Design the sequence.
């Protein structure tokens, strides 16, 4: 431990990526060996596993590149993610012709501005820009288009998309740039902590719901989501987070609590997105996923969109940074 | 790499960024056979979308039809249709001594593939309009060329009539099974069959 503490922040983060890539490589090699023994190549689980593994590789490489390229790079990187996620979200909503200007505002003005504010580390403005100013600007632009048909519904959809895909996700690069006392330039750890905790919660919840087979809380929305599996997911993630406390600015107990909050929000966020998908009548986000086998980006980052802002603000509030 | 190639790359990148431009090859694989693609026409972006959805190798051999008077009216328009898209120019005003399909026939004789929008104009609402007879005449003259129907989905939401800035929304191009003119098939029934082949590719609304 002492040797680790003496490393510079950059070296520590470098080590983190080394471990991550090493673990991924190990899993990939194991998967390749397993494939050699020729199990059922086309079984559903196997195909899904391969797809998830590939996504994990892409995600890790992108995360690494984002860290390498510093604040500007990571801001642009997450900005692009936001753009693609919002594109998917809007595609599935029934927008009308008169929403055109509002959508231009959302995509080409609000989104770049929000990420510019993140990049400049103006966290006071960053937290209010979308909830206050954009919340007001969107209906004004919509009203100017002169179409009263389903006005509230159309606006609500666009506002919702902006808050989840832009506001929510922009807290991820903000974590990278948040400066704790005696924790300078280790934001990558904090982001890694958040992502790891959220992913663990999802995985554990998935496994637990299969294993427990409890009665689903809301059958119409998700056949697997039950209170107990959700709680198990969040608790396991919290313990995992507590075990990771040494890479964060938190003490072990604090890490347990923030990890629980983030994990609980992430899995609940995924549940909410499921409800939205049911409403839109699709099983997966993305471009008519069934045909190409592609999974939407929003499926992957929705938990992060919900967990990141809650995590960010509870940490900021509690530690007064 | 020439400037036209760079422009092509840029346009392709923009089309993919804004619309995803996904090609779904339902009825046939994307092969380098000589084909006439015919699709519904809702927006100015239709051609760019089909072009971006095609694999790179097919793009240079697949040509759009452009109205000569409009697309040669400024040096930039002329350059982009000639150098980047390799368009076939047609005259909009019919003159007595010339067949309006002649440039298309010429291109097909050279072995190029074409993309045509048989409605003639953009239709913004619901089903495509009745097809014009050009497709029939081409099918009659070139029975060996595959006729591939295509449905372009969602593009009217990207850029509605009268707007200049496109909004990012995912679009798909669905390519159907090749069809051909049956012996002794009437013009009208062939065109109706072609039109329903295009409509049949429309993704089901959820």
Sequence:
């Amino acid at each position: 431990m002492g040797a680790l503490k003496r490393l510079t922040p950059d070296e520590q983060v470098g080590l983190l990526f080394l471990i991550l890539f090493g673990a991924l490589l190990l899993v990939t090699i194991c998967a390749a060996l397993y494939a050699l023994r020729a199990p059922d190549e086309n079984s559903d689980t196997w195909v899904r596993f391969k797809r998830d593994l590939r996504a994990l590789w892409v995600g890790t490489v992108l995360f690494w590149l984002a860290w390498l390229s510093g604040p500007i790079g990571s801001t642009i990187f997450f900005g692009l993610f936001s753009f693609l996620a919002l594109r998917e979200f809007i595609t599935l909503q029934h927008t009308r012709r008169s929403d055109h200007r509002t959508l231009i505002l959302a995509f080409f003005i609000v989104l770049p501005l929000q990420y510019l504010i993140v990049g400049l580390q103006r966290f006071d403005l960053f937290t209010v820009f979308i909830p206050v100013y954009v919340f007001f600007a969107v209906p004004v632009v919509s009203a100017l288009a002169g179409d009263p048909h389903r006005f509230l519904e159309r606006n609500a959809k666009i506002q919702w998309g902006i808050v989840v895909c832009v506001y929510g996700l922009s807290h991820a690069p903000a974590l990278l740039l948040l400066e704790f006392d005696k924790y300078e330039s280790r934001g990558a750890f904090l982001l890694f902590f958040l992502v790891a905790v959220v992913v663990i919660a999802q995985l554990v919840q998935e496994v637990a719901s299969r294993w427990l087979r409890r009665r689903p809380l809301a059958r119409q929305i998700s056949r697997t989501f039950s209170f107990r599996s959700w709680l198990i997911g969040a608790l396991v993630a919290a313990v995992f987070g507590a075990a990771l406390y040494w890479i964060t600015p938190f003490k072990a107990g604090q890490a347990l609590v923030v990890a629980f909050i983030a994990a609980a929000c992430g899995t609940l966020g995924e549940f909410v997105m499921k409800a939205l998908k049911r409403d839109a009548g699709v099983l997966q986000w993305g471009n008519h996923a069934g045909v190409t086998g592609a999974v939407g980006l929003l499926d992957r980052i929705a938990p992060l969109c919900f967990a990141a802002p809650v995590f960010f603000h509870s940490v900021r509030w509690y530690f007064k940074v | 790499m020439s400037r036209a190639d760079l422009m092509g790359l840029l346009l392709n990148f923009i089309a993919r960024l804004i619309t995803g431009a996904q090609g779904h090859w339902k009825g046939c694989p994307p092969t380098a056979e000589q084909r006439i693609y015919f699709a519904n026409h809702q927006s100015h972006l239709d051609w760019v979308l089909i072009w971006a959805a095609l694999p790179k190798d097919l793009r240079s051999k697949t040509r759009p039809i452009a109205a000569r008077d409009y697309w040669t009216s400024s040096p930039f328009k002329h350059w982009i249709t000639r150098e980047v898209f390799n368009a076939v120019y047609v005259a909009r005003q019919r003159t007595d001594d010339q067949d309006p399909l002649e440039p298309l026939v010429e291109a097909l004789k050279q072995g190029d593939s074409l993309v045509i929008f048989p409605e003639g104009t953009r239709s913004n609402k619901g089903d495509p309009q009745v097809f014009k007879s050009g497709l029939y005449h081409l099918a009659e003259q070139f029975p060996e060329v595959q006729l591939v129907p295509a449905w372009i989905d969602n593009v009217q939401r990207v850029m509605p009539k009268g707007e200049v800035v496109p909004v990012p929304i995912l679009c798909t191009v669905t390519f159907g099974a090749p069809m051909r003119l049956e012996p002794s098939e009437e013009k009208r029934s062939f065109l109706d069959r072609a039109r329903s082949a295009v409509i049949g590719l429309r993704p089901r609304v959820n």
Observations:
- Residues 288-294 of chain A have pLDDT under 50 and may be disordered.
